[in-house]
Amino acid sequence: MGNRNRATTAAAGSVLTVLLLASGCGSGDDEARTVTVRAAGAERAVGHGTGDGEGYGAGAEAGADADADVDADAEEDSNPAGKLSVREIPEVGNVVTDGAGATLYRFDKDTAQPPRSNCADACATLWPAVPADGAQAPAGVEAGLLGSVERPDGTRQLTLAGWPVYRYAKDTLPGEAKGEGVGGTWHALAADGGKAADAGKAADAGKESAPLSAVNDAKLGKLLVDGQGRTLYRFGKDSAWPMKFGCLGACLNTWKPAAPVEADKAVGIPAGLVGSAERPDGTRQLTIDCWPVYTYTGDTAPGQTNGQGVQGLWFAVNDAGKKIPAKG
To answer: pTM of the predicted model, to two decimals?
Structure first.
């Protein structure tokens, strides 16, 4: 990161005119509009994106585990954010990225009111602070949410809704979000300064009224759930062609056949993959791509995937109707 070209910034108090593309929700057309915004932090020159003042020692705690392999020049990150973007990362949700496509993060041990960074020293090596100079708000991010906070070394760090903004040194490609959930305290940023994963879960929760839908899971990616948000699984001892049910008798105490749904009411999956089949006892069961699907009694709350990989035979189903392999 230390080898990137450094961009010059506007003088103090200068005003930038940014061309934004307004993409309306539910609208099929985009229209261009101009908005005048002030570059966050343009009043200060950008130096190193680290801090070493007293009271900022949480960095060693946050980033010292297994990160000696990170290039030391990540600590010196004076690359401006440029024009921000909001992009969907399937495992996380709608995430704010910088002008180069790098995912931006917030730290739970920081504060937003007032803004304060608690990531310095070893932490700042792994999580370089994003300089405030040159940041521009795109469609989907309110310009008024951008700001800056002074770090202990006198440089100014970009803030979003008050939260100091960081990159993750182990994200090496645009669109990666390897930092999501690290230590339980680092989270990809949503457009409102919140946690992108939380916003994604809330959006998925809105789909629970659909009897069958595809949602994002942080570990498994897109998977199918029923109307109560319960993960759907298929069984390796069943078969699609010819149709065969391998889960019978005592198996049904743990794995419950999913009820059929109308294909046109499914959300996020091709209707042609949705069907049903008659079980040996005469009841009908939902099928996905001709495979019978089940819920797992070991999933006690919506969104759980405790059945994934059980006995090497049970697997969640993705939005293409295929089983999601167990990850080794």
So the answer is: 0.44
